[in-house]
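The aim of this short unit is practical: by the end, you should be able to scan a pair of folded records and say something sensible about each. We start with the first protein, listed as its amino acid sequence and then its structure tokens.
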Amino acid sequence: MTTLSTSNRLPTTSSTAARWAAYGAATWALGFAAVNIYLQIVGIDDSQLQQNWAAFTAVNLGVVVLKVFGAMVALATVQRWGRAPPAWLVSVSAWGAAGMLLLYAGYGLVALAAAGELLGWTRAGGMFLVPNLAYLGFFALGGALFAVAARHHQHRTATSPVWAVAWRASRSE
């Protein structure tokens, strides 16, 4: 059986930087969820979405749940109650959030640069006119906050990186 702990050391307390990153990531996720709730209540001036309002509502509310879960994952990296789930699960979830957000921002940056729209504007959520770089920076910020929180949690709980565990598991077979 493969374990995820690389040592027998006990978890240490969270550093100030890790706490700021975790609380920042949680605030980022909850704020982003609030935008989805706002869009659900106010609506979006898009005839195609209005024709498929039931599908939009299902997806939008699913996204809200996902963002609230992300906030809980961020807080679990530094809160005492975050020791209840397995440490590897918290680390994998936090790294997954960081990776997805940073990949989205990176892909958007490359796609916009290729289209010559890097300095253009976008309609975030179908309503808010935002500079493209600020829009992508918003996702990069969330990704960076989750990455700092994930790295600290991984170090504090002595969990191996996901790729190391998978490599060790494949070698033991």
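Turning to the second protein, read its sequence before its tokens, just as you did above.
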Amino acid sequence: MLQLAGTAVAAGFVASGAGAQSDEDEGNGSESGDDDYSPLDDDEIDDSWPIENRDDAMAVEEDEGEIDTDDDVVIAEDVELDGDLTTEGSVVLERDAEVDGHVDAGEHVLLEEDAEVDDGIEAGEHVALEHDASVDGDVEAGGDVLLREDAEVDGSIDADGDVVLETDAEVDGDVTGQSVELADTAEVDGDVEETG
């Protein structure tokens, strides 16, 4: 049940999506069998990343205001959150979802195809933007950052891990990471700094 206090979500869970959870993975939906998984590990992002079982996450299935929670959060397809999203867990914006505010996640952030964040991302771990996803603002990550084909960051990227920009990905600022890998047609409009 989704309970609202003003325009902020106070508490609640709504089932959304499909997933399977083993008996070993109880509790928070972001637990997975491989704690070292990075979106850079495979050609396609594992369906269970960053939230092992989306049924256990807080699902936002209608347009809402600001959210502040300790839970993993899934913004459903075509839903717009009008405000900031703050969580100790992971965040998934499904296809065409939008956060008209800042995303601050204690763990991972995944923007599926055509998803948008309008005021930057801070993540304690990895950040991945799928095809045509975009961020208007800076991306700060405690892990790796992946921009798939045609993904765009209108700001800078600062990652404690590696950064990969695939075909036609674009960053309108600086890119900093342990290593930075750019496809031939990827574009960075600022400086590239490798710290590793």
